[in-house]
Structure formats: structure tokens, C-alpha cells
Amino acid sequence: MNEDAFSVQFRDLSGRLHSFWKDELDVLEQQWQRSPMPSYANRLNPDQTDDLVAYLVSLKGAADE
């Protein structure tokens, strides 16, 4: 979730926040250009992607009401 010069913070799958001091960690491996979000590149065809984007855009209008 967050990192500063002295600590790192993570949120686990249940939503709990955990904070660790960097100088107390055995290993801190930074993986640049990687996301924990799985790719949907091979799961949705172009029409499905368009439908998903249209749906998500429609939710913005619903939140404004």
C-alpha cells in the first residue's frame, strides 16, 4: 500500500493493515513494473472489453445521483 524511507505498509486479503520497519526485515524485494492485479489481456475479447468499459463508465453517472 505504502512505502517511505523507514517503513512499508501492506493490506492483507481481509483488509487488515500491517506495517513493518525496513531495518527489521530480512529481505525487501522490490519488483518494479509488476502489478499484483492479474492481467485480463487473454481473458476478454475486444467486444467484452468494450462492454466492460461501458459498464464501468455508466457507474460513474449512478454515483452522482
Notes on the protein architecture:
With 65 residues, the protein is of the alpha+beta class. The protein has one domain (2-26, 41-64). Helix content is 29%, strand content 18%. It is built from 1 helix and 3 strands, in the order E-E-E-H. A 3-stranded antiparallel beta sheet has the order 1-2-3, with no helix packed on it.
Could you report the average pLDDT, rounded to the nearest whole number?
A: 85
Largest sheet: 3 strands, antiparallel
Rg on CA atoms, Å = 18 Å
Strand content: 15-25%
Number of helical regions: 1
Structural class: alpha+beta
Query: Strand sequence of the main sheet, in spatial order?
Result: 1-2-3
- Count of discrete domains: 1
* Oligomeric grouping of the chains: single chain
Taken in chain order, the helices and strands follow as EEEH
Strand segment count: 3
Cα-to-Cα separation, first versus last residue:
31 Å
pLDDT < 50 runs, ≥5 residues = none
Fraction of residues in H or I helices = 25-40%
Q: What is the 3D shape?
A: elongated
